[in-house]
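Board notes (copied after class):
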Amino acid sequence: MLVYFLVACDRLEEKREKKLRQHLPELQAALQAYVEANAANQVSLINDCDSEDCEDWQLGISQPISKPLHLNFPVKLFNGLAEQYGIDCEVGTIEGDSREPVSYFGKFEGPGEAFLIAEYLEL
């Protein structure tokens, strides 16, 4: 199963959007470092932040998952980013060109739990 984790960039209050724009380089660097460290696990970077409108941004990772245990590392990464940069995250599945969200977590939604996300993904 191919899953994705994205930084929630849509429907943000002005203050949160400003903070996201301010921390974009750090978030991109952290995600790039994770992708490079996990290249053997076929982790890919999702980095489409060219639009002037923050709402259109897509920033995160995609990763094949076959066991609930495989969710521990990306959930830990995104929980850390949420705490450090005050963001929320979206997690879901990828089939073809479409993404299907299954859960949200982060600074405002509350920390993500790999076990619960595995349940939502029906792993």
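Comment from the instructor: Residues 14-37 form the longest helix (24 residues). Residues 2-121 form one domain.
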